[in-house]
Amino acid sequence: MRQARPVLSAAPRTVLLLIGIVLVAANLRAPITGLAPVLGMIQETFALSTAHAGLLTTLPLLAFALVSPVAPWLARRFGLARALFAALVLLAAGVVLRSAGPAWSLFVGTAVIGAGIAVGNVLLPALLKRDFPTRIASVTGAYALAMGAAAAVASATAFPLATGFGLGWSGALLAMLVLPVVAMLLWWPQLGERAAVAQSGGGAPAASPIWRHPLAWQVTLFMGLNSFIYYVMIGWLPAILASRGYSAAEAGSLHGLMQLASAIPGLVLGPLIQRLNDQRRVALATSLLVAGALLGLQWLPQLAGLWVACFGFGTGACIILALMFMGLRTENPRQAAALSGMAQCVGYLLAACGPPLIGGLHDRSQDWNLALTVCLALSLAMAAVGMLAGRNRRIRSASTAASTPAAG
């Protein structure tokens, strides 16, 4: 197989690639989480109803679901490195457009940001499968940590930038342009040096349609159920805490604690997974941690700080596991991209449905207990699906379909 001639030695190129992966990952949540702290200012500026303001948080999830199936095609057509660079360009354009001023650009820019994040979400697991096949767990943990840390910083700085520095909501959101611009600068060397390697991933043996495989559905449902529960709590945790007697300031602090806790598994999960033959026990333990946190919020709300931290850690660990599964349960980068596209399409469709459905349950019952019970039941279902997805086996490609499974 013919490859591009390396300009740097292998070690510096690998370090540069790892830095690029981390910087790309830093863009995959922050532009969305940074919106919430200034959403009230945006509502006031444009006299938006609650429903229209809610659309700003739902639009990215819908974009994730709609664009995710297209991302594997982009990788096959242009190569993984170029497709990821295009995702960063989309992100930068969306950040600028969202902050341009008119109401229409606010919504269009938000959708464009969602499209860019969707491509990055889908293709990073495929890139890891191609370039770090023996270190999928550790590199996934590192980029998940970057994703969570950047999201926490964006949430913490958006309001102070808007008010304390006099930038307003548009200036605060525009400041996030630094993330995709820096990532593009560091990713640029990959466009030349890794072009030939990208083509090798595109020509790998294809699996039969990914949607036909039970293991693909197990990974997809594990991610989808986790996304549903996580985005329900992203949307409704402050209201749930308010109904338990917490002030708006306390609820906001606990909401931030949840996001911070979701980044911590990136520090510990990668090294742990590397030592295990399969991930069943980890999937079970983290899912049950989520269930326990939901039960605690329902019955012992006075310990909300503990439950919110447990919930953030558990859901953060589950999303990292889901991302790892996309590489660990596939045989080649093309298959990993297809599974990633499927899981994120279904997962974010469920996530987009979660907040309005759970909000509707609250409106019917005039209480959050039923809503929390539904999420608790879904977290137990996630534990069961995680046990199946965590088994040490792979989706067979066309070239191995007639033989024994790749792993038992």
TrEMBL record:
Gene Ontology terms for molecular function: transmembrane transporter activity
SUPFAM superfamilies named in the record: MFS general substrate transporter
PROSITE patterns: MFS
Keyword field contains Transmembrane: yes
Listed Pfam families: MFS_1
Keyword DNA repair: no
Keywords: Membrane, Transmembrane, Transmembrane helix
Protein name, entry field: Uncharacterized protein
Organism this protein belongs to: Thauera chlorobenzoica
Biological classification of the source: Bacteria, Pseudomonadati, Pseudomonadota, Betaproteobacteria, Rhodocyclales
